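Box 3.1 — From sequence to structure: Thiamine pyrophosphate protein central region
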Amino acid sequence: MSQALVQHLAALRVEMADGSIAPYCGGVFTIFGHGNVAGIGEALYAQRDHAQNPLPTFRAHNEQGMAHAAIAYGKAQFRQRIMAVSTSIGPGATNLVTAAAVAHVNRLPVLLLPGDTFATRAPDPVLQQIESFSQGDLSANDCFRPVVRYFDRITRPEQILTALPRAIQVMTDPASCGPVCLALPQDVQAEAFDCPVSFLQPALIRFRRPPADAGELARAAEVLKTAKRPLIVAGGGVLYSQASNELRAFAEAHGVPVVESHGGKSSLAWDHPLNLGAIGVDGMNVANAMAREADLVLAVGTRLQDFTTGSHALFAKAKLLCLNVQPFDAGKWNATSLVADAKLGLGQLSAAAAGWSADAGWTDKARAEAARGNAIVTELTTAVPKGVLPYDAEVIGAVRDSLNDAGGDSGLDDIVVCAAGTLPAELHKLWRSRAPGTYHMEYGYSCMGYEIAGGLGAKMGAPHREVIVMVGDGSYMMLNAEIATSVMLGLKLIVVVLDNRGYGCIERLQGKSGVPSFNNMLDDCVPEGGQPSEIDFAMHARAMGAHAVHVADVAELKTAMVAARAARKTQVIVIDTTHTRTTDGGCWWEVAIPEVSQRSEVQEAHERYVTAKQDQRL
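Predicted structure (token representation):
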């Protein structure tokens, strides 16, 4: 059974968006254990150097980390290709559950192949087996059911003939795309069966692009043509459909300004005159101000997460028109739905609205505000005050512009990777991306620890680009082992660690909620008899094989970035920062405040909360 699975994966080919043909599965990450080493392991060994269909195997240091890398690979490949992940039956399998949730929320494909207990049950309970007192067929792998798009447990080898194609169908469907899990009992992995030759010669994968329904398209065009102050919210679906050209053409043809969610950032070049930049809770003031004035929002390929919509209060009075390949997303919040592929749908909607455009004054204002916003970004990221610790904006500016300092090609954008903490808010506003896919943010699940492993996957998916991981000290401490993997695989990363000595983002949220600061910043967490935390991140990174330095200030950071670009192996640059300064911008975000408290600060925060909720879309 394992041989059939691995040979099918290795033989799969996909027609890419540019018409080229590529292997669908870029490789298999695995950490072997007793649940996969003898079954899947034997099949992977035989396939790694196969003459026609090689399938590389990559060893990692943490199961969650290797799954993050596999997910990031799929994201960097615009969901056109995948990686698979194989683990043993116990903690190796459950370590994947968080990563599965990351892929599920972000609608990203990954094939999870955890080992499972014996289907025969003859040796039960085996090492690492979860025993249920009430359900005989339950195993730890049932944890995957809520966080994957498709789950199956292969209890007979013949079942792989239907289960694997179904899993691949889910991952290649633009509407249902997400993680899939095939739980593999270790005895079934090793059982023989008569496998049809056709299974080992699978058909070429071609992605479908569903066009809009004629009736929906007509209704959407009529709604659009009533707008005088329209605004486009570009989401991740624009990138996965590779519809950046169509987005630009639509905006220019109809004079409609564009704002970008985290998922959609880099859909439109940062310096396009109609790109207002980041929208939402961590958005630019210019973008949010235009959103409040808009009379219609065309949401393209976005699931309308609360950070994008300001918890549905930012543009609650505007009409909502949702163009999305997934009906679940297209119909949110009583929107006028247009279910279609973003690339086709934008072209069809533009044609159906031929002759219509936004009010000229609105378009002119958008261009002026976009220019003003860009000037603000330049000022924030290049003016570095003396005598104080830098904050994220000043670090971002130095990192972002270091390609020019190194004399590089400014047309070949870096990929910046991040996931959690303060950095996503600052990068959303301040990072500048020219090419689609160069802003790699995991902000659907906001999973601390994704960053370094995600950077590894992004590098595997786009080896020709410089991959820069920006990570806070809190996230670094959560999951950093794939620094060693990047060194081992010869896949260079530049990791910039911003050390503000704790969970600065949540400490600020804590304060805004009226709660005194505690249990977030390291210096506040030392009990009587304890010792202050002293973590040398540069020394730690060097211990894993990277070259690492701790710089004193932004000037030294700029010098270190030039050297890091010239280097050939993974570089880690650590800089001390403050969490007390942040970039202005954003809008309200719903965080529930206690109705009952003896503290006046909490009572006042609750009053503000109740007032803000009155602006939410109903």
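Summary of the box: The radius of gyration is 25 Å.
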